[in-house]
Amino acid sequence: MEQAKQKSRSEIPQEYKWNLEDIFPHDQAWEEEYTKAEKLLVQATEFQGRLGESAETLLACFAWVDEIGQRVGEIYTYARMRRDEDNRESHYQALTDRAGTLSVRVGSALAFVVPEILSLPDGKLQEFRQANAQLALYDHALDDILRKREHVLSPAEEKLLAEMGEIADGPSTIFGMANNADLKFPTIKDEKGAEVELTKGNYIQFMESEDRRVRQEAFETFYATYQKQINTWAATLNSNIKGDAFFAKARRYPSAIESSLNADKVPLTVYHSLIETVREFLPELHRYVKLRKKAMGLDELHMYDIYVPVVSEVKMNIPYTQAVEMCLAGLKPLGLDYGEVLEKGFNSHWIDVYENEGKTSGAYSWGTYGSHPYVLLNHQDTLDSMFTIAHEMGHSLHTYYSNQTQPHIYAGYTIFVAEVASTLNEGLVMNHLLNTTEDPKLLAYLLNHYLEQFRGTVFRQTMFAEFEMKTHAMVEAGEALTADLLSSIYLKLNEDYYGPDVVMDPQIAIEWARIPHFYNAFYVYKYATGFSAATALGRKILEEGEPAVKSYLEFLSSGSSDYPIELLRKAGVDMETPLPVREALQVFKGLLDRLETLL
Predict the structure, then answer these.
(1) How far apart are CA 290 and CA 280, in angstroms?
(2) Model pTM?
(3) Catalytic residue among 85, 392, 419, 476
(4) CA nearest to 317, candidates 4, 15, 2, 598
(5) Minimal CA–CA distance to 325: which of 380, 386, 378, 385?
(6) CB 81 within 8 A of CB 88
(7) The predicted structure's pLDDT at residue 4
(8) pLDDT tens digits along 371-394
């Protein structure tokens, strides 16, 4: 277990911290870049009202948009990642706030570009594209603009919406500060009876404890803390969903979900098909839950019994350095080049490893076009944390390959494809462990863990996706989402997904209050679709070798140069059919069959 008290940032050895100086060597350099970006903003007047003059003017405008976008990306990323090191630091709170304000100002300054392009006379844009070959770089971007024509407003309206961005981010910002900086949990007694501070970082570790008293105490204490502000959490989430509904309506979309999916050109049928296919396999999840209850020898299986491994005799304490070696070994099927970049990331301060006071919880991969990727971890020496490393480095190498190959405008990629890169890494590492493990108990432990990945990534995230769909539909129908209503919706979904063999502890009804992803709506379903696509691509890599690896690295290098559905189709997976999700859940069924023979 963790120490009784979290370490301060200064107590973490330097070798386990990321090096943000690779973005800006010091805060003064950040200030200088901020000033340059402000000066670039003024150039908006040089282009506004003139995009129809010539192909050269349009090209120059695109170059300006690209430059300011890259600069502001660096400004915001550095400030926010500095703040994430310790959210209590007022200096970096201020820098992040200034960077956010600058981002809104940039959005406002750029608001004329798309409406003005769309207002060009018929044929004018095509004439420009033929007149200047350099505009070919922006072909996909221009096609995407034209595709969204009916949802783009007048320049004045676009400017107004852009200026509302900071206000619209309010609920998410408030939730983040309350959840990361202000929320304090009491202490609980660990397995030895010692008082230990409960944190979001060690909560799951407590939930995996073999001591049921510890699990129950952590569970009840954790949610009792959120319960104290339950009406505030509800008001914050309700406000966020209202914002989603407002922006969708303003842009003439039938619903917030259609607005969100259209950004990636993902058909609504993909979302609905995911939910329908996962619900089709809920009997398999119920079978898994029943096996868990039997294997643990419990008369009643509670929600705080779901995370603990069913094979109690196995202990996997995996220090960070060992976790890195396991990832490197498991990802060898991706080839020498991938392995070299991976090692470079581990050895070059890309990663901020350990939890400290005030540090943002969870894990992410981020970075800027001009620097290398970065990974935030809160490593706990568990198997889960090892897989988190594999997951986040999947994102980071996706970023690395895209940045190396694509121009800035296409270097970023959507979440829809991002989750493929991360979960494919997890699948390959797990496959390596399953193939090299001979001890039946350890094998059962790993099978259980893999089943948990399915439960957490496919079933649970799809349940979240249903929650988002239902709550947004209610707000769009004019209903107010109170704490009681949110909790009743969430509880019913848990009952559906987990089935009759789990006691629905009342605390689980308020789990929605702690989920950060709900402040970025219609995001979580991509974990489930990404896991499914990754399962298919991982199989191809293991079965076909070099040709599949080459195709996969091309996929990683594609950024956003095409729509995500098309990028995956080129890589060999068609997400417009239920097949990838169904195939992934057949793998779940096979793993479950295999585990049953060992327990």
Answers:
(1) 18
(2) 0.80
(3) 392
(4) 2
(5) 386
(6) no
(7) 52
(8) 999 999 999 998 889 999 999 999
Active site annotation includes 392: yes
- Asked whether the predicted pLDDT for residue 313 surpasses 90, the reply is no
DSSP state of 187: E
Distance, in Å, from the CA atom of 452 to the CA atom of 469, rounded to the nearest integer, reads 24
Burial of residue 156, with CB atoms counted within 10 A of its CB: 0-12 exposed, 13-18 middle, 19 or more buried: exposed
Q: Which DSSP symbol is given to 271?
A: H
What whole-number distance in Å separates Cα of residue 562 and Cα of residue 575? 15
Q: How many CB atoms are closer than 10 A to CB 425?
A: 29
Report CA torsion sign: 484, 490, 493, 497: negative
Matching residue, tokens 């006071």 = 357
Residues in the chain: 599
Question: Is the four-CA dihedral 580, 583, 589, 590 of positive or negative sign?
Answer: negative
Q: What is the rounded (10 degree) CA torsion for 124, 127, 133, 135?
A: 10
Q: Compute the C-alpha angle 39/45/48, nearest 5°.
A: 135
Domains present along the chain, CATH in parentheses: 9-168 (1.20.140.70), 182-313+479-516 (1.10.1370.20)
Contact between residue 463 and residue 455 where contact means Cβ atoms under 8 Å apart: no
Q: Give phi and psi for 375, each to the nearest 5.
A: -130, 130
